[in-house]
Amino acid sequence: MAIPVMKPLLGEEEALAVAETVRSGWVAQGPRVAAFEKAFAERVGAAHGVAVSNCTTGLHLCLHLLGVGPGDEVVVPSLSFIATANAVRYCGATPVFADIDPLTGNLTAETVAAAITPATKAIMIVHQGGVPADVKAIRAIAGDVPVVEDAACAAGSTLDGNPVGTGALLAAWSFHPRKLLTTGEGGMITTDDAEWATRLRRLREHGMSMSAADRHAAGGAVVESYVETAFNYRMTDIQAAMGLVQLGRLNGIIEQRRALAARYHELLAPLGLRAVTDPAHGTTNYQSFWVALPDGAPDLLVVLGKLAEAGVSARRGIMAAHMEPAYAGHPHAPLPGTEELATRSLILPLHHEITDADQKHIVGALADALGLVAS
Predict the structure, then answer these.
(1) Catalytic center at which residues (predicted)?
(2) Within the chain, what is the greatest distance between any pair of CA atoms?
(3) Has 121 been annotated as catalytic?
């Protein structure tokens, strides 16, 4: 059987929490969502959490809240899952692709500065693969332009000694199964602004002046009003029940992933391959463990095919939106760092069931695929 590239850590506690929610009769957005919002916000150092259906809808709500619309530009990395750029298009605005540092996979102050124009309405940075971006430097160059953080992969990563999310203007998070903390699908927005949090909760629920849960709790005859055109981006209590259990596992998951990543670095060192690691300004949760292929290596698809033959389920490195058909013809500046990582990197398996023997086999198979000698 192939070694899978990822596997969520789920157990009996999650199953019991979901079953209890089902038995309660309240399965839509309700008290468990509220509890999960509070607990997650506290974990990432934010004042408020707003649960949503997924990170993509969270990014859309952040931009909508900031008034991003037709005629506006939003600086984004092309090197990210396509949802980052798509969220800009949902608002009718134009994504402007900035290049990344190939050592971290993230935007830098210099690459952002090169992409800012008078039409720039927001900057969306990504903590790619859990590697924290240098938010402080980017905020300094942004000036009055708001910075939104796509923290889809970054739960448990740190920045300047604090959890990623601490002090964020707006940050959006993902709980997809490929993330460390999962609710199946689902997402969260965090912010320190109470008024924004109130409006975001309204925006996720059709613009209703009072949520369904609040109407139920009121006990009497209550008629809601619809104060603005909005969306249906809610999370269910079933998902939140799982999320609360997962949140309790997060520290242990990060500790194990960092230990596995350290072992990968040890095994890869004799091959001279560059792999993802902590930046100077923070620590990564190793949501993904990517490796850059050396000069002269076979084509990425050839390497992935050889790994598959050896029973290793690897993946291409982080995608580049500007190289996908959906963005064909979309104008952009040269993106050499982006294209280097998008075409010359791959993601190795990393999850709680990976053993030392697995890692030796994975690195040995990679060495064989590249024509290198593993120690």
Answers:
(1) 179 (proton acceptor)
(2) 74
(3) no
